Give the backbone structure.
Amino acid sequence: MSDDECATGFCSPVTQTCKPGTITPRYVPDACEGAATGARTISTSTVETTNSCAAMVTQSAGPPICLLRYSSFELEPSVTFRVTGGFALAIVTDTSLTVAGVLDVSADDSTDSGPGGDYMTSGGAPSNTNGAGGGGAGFKTNGGAGGDSNTNGGANNGGAIVDAAAAMGLLPGASGGGSTSSRGGYGGGGVTLVSCRGTVSVTGIIDAGGGGGAGGNSGSSPYGGAGGGAGGNVVLQGRMVTVTGQVFANGGAGGSGKPFTTVNSVGVAGTDGMATTTCALGGTATDASPGGDGGCAQTSPTNGIKFRLTPAPPSAPSGGGGGGSVGYFRAFTPAGVSPTLTPAAASPTFEAPGTVDTH
């Protein structure tokens, strides 16, 4: 006759039976209404794009969310499920949602974004008038600033901190500051994994790293290196959440400035945020200013390096781009239920757990 008599925590006094109990997930509050028609098991590595998604949830403050709805979802061990595209991602199940393989929602430099990772740009653009590098994208921390003619990070154009928990929508990581010639690295994905009446279990790997910024380009009046993209934003929601695997949302690194001893040369792109606890390295090239490293773990991204002025160049010098910030990992369970967050490796660490409403 009362909720505390039920293992699920949900009682129906009218029928004197225990109910399954359903959470009301953040960002996709209606997704748990009604039962899904089928399960999904991913047993071979595959790539999908949210751009072709059939079911969409609009957001007033964020990119549209591609909704994938199943009775259950299992990503098997040693299998990679790669998701890219212009929309954020929600995988929602009635019961269990298991990630035992690799869920890859990371950015690939400025070629492919994580889900929704091209929604916004954070960090100033590189300049072809004074050669300053672009700013890295901010998210959990400020992004690194681009180098200018006098000072490492002298462009003062790193992206600002964004509190993902306080945002009205499911935000992805932002792209770093770039231009048509030197493109900023894309952001890692905005993703929520939801089990309406069961457990979200991560024993494998989630990778939501940001992309590396491009190297400086544009001939005798070159742009500086572009900024790195920020790591993504991954939100786990269920009646229970258990994480014993590995989770990464590292920032992408900044690109190097254009080598200035050769007029038609191009700088080197920064490294993408990696699925390790090691920071992505800024692009380096002979006779060019290196880019800043991406953020990782508890380490903030670094600034792009100032112009190299020796030996005497035949073309204008340019600075390195700044590194991108790490992203966020968060878990939400009903009040009174403590998630198990003991990842084997995490970069960055989880935010403090939150609560999700139930009905």
